Amino acid sequence: MTGIDAAADSIASTDVEVVAATTSRARTIAASIIPPVLFGALVMGLWYFISYGVLDSSRQFLLRPPHQVIDVGFLDGSNRSELFGGLWSSTRVALYGLMISIGLGFFIAILMSQAKFIERAVFPFMVTLQAIPILAIVPMIGFWFGFGGTSRVIVCVIISLFPIIVNTLFGLQSAEREMHDLFTLHHAGRWTRLRKLMFPNALPAIFAGLRISAGLAVIGAIVGDFFFGRGEAGIGQLLRKYANQLQGEELLSAVILSSALGVTVFLTFGVLQDKAIGRWYSEDS
Fold this sequence. Notes:
Elements: H1 3-54, H2 66-75, H3 77-114, H4 116-131, H5 134-145, H6 149-172, H7 177-185, H8 190-228, H9 235-244, H10 248-277, H11 280-284
Helix pairs in contact: 2-3, 2-10, 3-4, 3-6, 3-8, 3-9, 3-10, 4-6, 5-6, 6-8, 8-9, 8-10, 9-10
């Protein structure tokens, strides 16, 4: 075989590999996109069927068809401005509450990971806090902190704190015993052990907790706004207003925006997870 033939075979082999990689990538993208698109189409079809086939005209306000929701809720300028203004207000509250939960949750989880007696003392109260129905303590929060933005942030913190603590603590405690022994042989201190062993090992669990808490923070912002009902109107106040006035299109538009906010925050932390730890965790699993 001449050098020219070898070069031609090498080029042909490279072309085949490129085509195979492109085909595989296209299949992966199709497998990720097609199922939710098909399911979304099924949901839309069911929505139209209920609106026009199940509900009579006198009860159609209970579930307006999708095109009317889009037309009234998103294409009407005044309604769109009101909805997106409420969305921005709830987004700020959710982000404030989530940031406080992250800082507080990391601090508590690190303390618990460093001393067993702290874990035994604090963990039952964290479980108790998580088990308390938030609606039962909303009036107390309003009495103590007022009925404005501060109380909404507190509701977000209470709802979103527990998953961060539990997942962070689990991750910090999941480093292998052999690795701890290695750090002990090198006379590593607590801070070095935490920074170079426990925290990197905990990142997958930490991000799992963050993604859960991100969605819960959005729920907390909407719930707090719904029940406190004072100050700058968020999605919660708009939901109550539209429900009381039987404005079906606006109500569904607010629900859609609430869901979109939760999904966006959840996916954002998924992207941050990929940037922070890549895909090594899924490859090793």
